[in-house]
């Protein structure tokens, strides 16, 4: 992606041009965005070719053909102008890398991935061939990889429609009496699968004429194609087109399960990072000229309302579970006399699921013992002492998340000190950044400079990660992030272990929920006032929605200035049967209230940053048609983590806050790696522990934990957990899997 040159256009049709994506002989491809904010890849034909009548006719024919075919894995023309002075075609923008880029960066792909690639590209070709058409340009550069499968591009708008040497069928290479049709696409697909599985084409390298000769007259070199794919690839590459399988044959032969795990871990994380990366903004002058008004200033993402945050009085929304119990505070012994919690605290507990009958039981790898400060310990040699640091927002707007992590960490450390039979003693060193990114670096330095601290859980919020990651990286201090959505730039956080699915996977989870409710016209709303978080979420959702099943309606707005009544009326008039709100709680609540006044009967979906009392406060009558995706579970209703919920209630007197169970799991994983390191080595250092953690796996009470070599989340398990707004509280619905 490169900056625009002075000669590049700033607006084409209804699109604002942002950057150069690439260029070829006949045109330039730009990254653009529609006036509604939807990103697009915009191909603009060079004037010399636009003046060529024969080229223009072919281009118009290709565009018309592309508009006749829709398929889930096929990227086709979204808009075009083939008659004006400037000839162009716009396609949905896919941030994922091409197959060429993926193989160059990560090497040959594993057989499972290649099999899925073949099956899903064959699905796209089945739709093309079923319409009586032929793609003619199947090659690695025309395949882009996403988290839920490949996308085949290059169909419609080329004006030439013929692939490169090395990926051309014999009938294309030599011409003659044999017509070029669907079997030619199958031959090219065989070449592509060989490239994906081996890192090279079946006819090697060389000048174009030599590659054409080999394809026409020599057998393909398939020596290192994996055995499970060899027979099928060889069938695709038969010289006689009548002997090649059809696209339907390949679909039946190659169909494999595809989900978030279809790609190898490092490649999947690269794709997730691309979806999470912010897209460039149009120049203010260009946006003003296009829309006829000055654009609203986009504020930086500052402190935001987290899952609980600032709370209304408890009396505002009664719960069917009765009043939340009053419990012990974080610094008071469990079982001691306690003053009532403030109304906000009681309301917070109901939002996370009310009280219940609680008991203690062991689960998974955790101990979950009944423990208070005066509980008897196990006499043993204490060994050396180490501390686990906590870098958290303990007093700011996301204090519920930070305090939840502190309590989960403290429970695990206390239990392990008592019954873990450890060759060392553990302590907790907690530091509060108050949700202020400006304090993040100094807070992290205090932990990094403490020689007893061997690892840190945190930070609470994405905004603090760059500063915290740099400090911990310089000190070789392992940093386990539980509630941060995206790992960001790895160079800024080299010791980060991302202990939850990336924000980019929210798109896959949203698609599962929307499909389950039969929604088709999906309004994806990017709230500019929520900063990069909303932008990342909107791109993830829009980029992974199945275009064959869903019709996205993309809107970019600012919750601080938007007339939600007008917005709701527009969405209802456009026939949206689901809205995905990508911002924070107040905007989600205002939208829910406005939609109700229009008679909207569809689905509302948001993420965990929209969970909170502000949603209920601004939505008016508590809606039952809104759902929320979060990466933390509810230990009150999740069968897997209920024992943790009971132990937490026994100790503190209330149900766990967000990420408490996840912090408990992360602590057990960390201490297990510490113990293994101490037992294998004379001493425990931060660098050695980091290496051990990257290779560790743990089955927790909330979710499984594992990391790849870069420290990104690599465990199998839920993409997210689903919650539903119900009578003024959130009800846990269960895990969402791909």
Automatic annotation (TrEMBL):
GO MF terms listed in the record are: kinase activity
Superkingdom of this protein's organism: Bacteria
Q: Which PROSITE patterns does the record cross-reference, listed alphabetically?
A: PROTEIN_KINASE_ATP, PROTEIN_KINASE_DOM
For the region Disordered, give the residue spans: 285-348
UniProt domain Protein kinase: residue ranges = 15-256
Compositionally biased, Low complexity: which spans?
A: 320-338
Q: Which UniProt keywords apply?
A: ATP-binding, Kinase, Nucleotide-binding, Signal, Transferase
- Tell me which residues bind ATP: 43
Q: Which PANTHER family match?
A: MITOGEN-ACTIVATED PROTEIN KINASE KINASE KINASE 20-RELATED, SERINE_THREONINE-PROTEIN KINASE YBDM-RELATED
The record's family statement is:
Belongs to the leucine-binding protein family.
The name this protein carries in UniProt is: Bifunctional serine/threonine-protein kinase/ABC transporter substrate-binding protein
């Amino acid at each position: 992606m490169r900056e625009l040159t002075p000669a590049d256009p700033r607006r084409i049709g209804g699109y604002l041009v942002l950057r150069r994506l690439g260029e070829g002989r006949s045109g330039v491809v730009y990254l653009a965005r529609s006036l509604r904010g939807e990103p697009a890849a915009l191909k603009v034909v060079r004037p010399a070719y636009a003046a060529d009548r024969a080229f223009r006719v072919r281009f118009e024919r290709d565009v018309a053909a592309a508009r006749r075919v829709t398929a889930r894995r096929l990227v086709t023309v979204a808009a075009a102008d083939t008659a004006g002075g400037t000839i162009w075609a716009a396609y949905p923008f896919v941030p994922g890398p091409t197959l060429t880029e993926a193989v160059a960066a990560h090497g040959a792909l594993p057989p499972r991935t290649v099999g899925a690639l073949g099956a899903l590209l064959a699905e796209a070709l089945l739709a093309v061939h079923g319409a009586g058409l032929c793609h003619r340009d199947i090659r690695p550069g025309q395949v882009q990889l996403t988290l839920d499968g490949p996308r085949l591009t290059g169909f419609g708008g080329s004006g030439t429609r013929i692939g490169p040497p090395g990926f051309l069928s014999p009938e294309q290479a030599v011409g003659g009496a044999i017509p070029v049709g669907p079997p030619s696409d199958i031959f090219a697909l065989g070449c592509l699968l060989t490239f994906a599985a081996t890192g090279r084409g079946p006819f090697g390298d060389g000048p174009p004429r030599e590659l054409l000769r080999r394809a026409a007259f020599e057998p393909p070199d398939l020596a290192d194609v994996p055995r499970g794919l060899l027979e099928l690839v060889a069938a695709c590459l038969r010289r006689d087109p009548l002997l090649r399988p059809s696209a339907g044959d390949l679909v039946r032969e190659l169909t494999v399960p595809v989900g978030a795990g279809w790609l190898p871990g490092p490649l999947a994380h690269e794709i997730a990072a691309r979806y999470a990366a912010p897209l460039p903004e149009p120049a203010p002058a260009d946006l003003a000229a296009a829309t006829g008004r000055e654009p609203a200033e986009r504020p930086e993402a500052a402190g935001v309302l987290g899952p609980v945050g600032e709370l209304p009085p408890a009396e505002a929304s009664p719960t069917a579970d009765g009043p939340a119990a009053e419990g012990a505070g974080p610094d008071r012994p469990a079982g001691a006399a306690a003053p009532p919690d403030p109304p906000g605290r009681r309301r917070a507990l109901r939002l996370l699921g009310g009280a219940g009958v609680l008991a203690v039981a062991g689960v998974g790898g955790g101990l979950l013992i009944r423990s208070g400060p005066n509980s008897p310990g196990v006499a043993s040699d204490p060994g050396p002492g180490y501390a686990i640091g906590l870098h958290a927002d303990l007093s700011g707007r996301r204090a519920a998340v930070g305090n939840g992590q502190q309590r989960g960490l403290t429970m695990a450390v206390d239990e392990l000190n008592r019954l873990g039979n450890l060759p060392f003693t553990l302590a907790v060193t907690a530091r509060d950044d108050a949700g202020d990114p400006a304090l993040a670096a100094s807070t992290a330095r205090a932990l990094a400079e403490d020689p007893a601290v061997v690892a840190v859980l945190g930070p609470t919020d994405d905004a603090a990660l760059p500063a915290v990651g740099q400090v911990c990286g310089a000190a070789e201090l392992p940093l386990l992030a539980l509630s941060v959505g995206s790992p960001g730039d790895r160079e800024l956080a080299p010791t980060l272990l991302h202990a939850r699915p990336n924000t980019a996977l929210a798109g896959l989870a949203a698609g599962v929920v929307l499909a389950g409710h039969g929604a088709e016209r999906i309004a994806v709303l990017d709230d500019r006032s929520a900063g990069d978080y909303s932008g990342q979420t909107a791109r993830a959702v829009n980029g992974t929605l199945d275009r064959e099943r869903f019709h996205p309606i993309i809107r970019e707005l600012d919750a601080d200035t938007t007339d939600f009544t007008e917005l709701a009326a527009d969405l209802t008039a456009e026939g949206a049967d689901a809205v995905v709100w990508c911002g924070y709680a107040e905007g989600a609540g205002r939208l829910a209230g406005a939609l109700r006044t229009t008679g909207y009967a569809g689905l509302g979906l948001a993420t965990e940053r929209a969970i909170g009392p502000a949603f209920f406060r601004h939505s008016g009558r508590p809606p039952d048609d809104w759902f929320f995706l979060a990466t933390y579970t509810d230990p009150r209703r999740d069968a897997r983590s209920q024992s943790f919920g009971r132990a937490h209630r026994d100790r503190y007197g209330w149900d766990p806050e967000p990420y408490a169970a996840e912090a408990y799991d992360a602590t057990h994983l960390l201490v297990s790696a510490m113990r293994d390191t101490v037992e294998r080595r004379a001493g425990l250092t931060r660098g050695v522990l980091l290496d051990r953690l990257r290779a560790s796996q743990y089955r927790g009470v909330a979710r499984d934990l594992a990391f790849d070599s870069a420290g990104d989340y690599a465990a199998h398990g839920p993409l997210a957990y689903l919650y539903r707004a119900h009578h003024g509280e959130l009800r846990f619905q269960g895990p969402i899997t791909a």
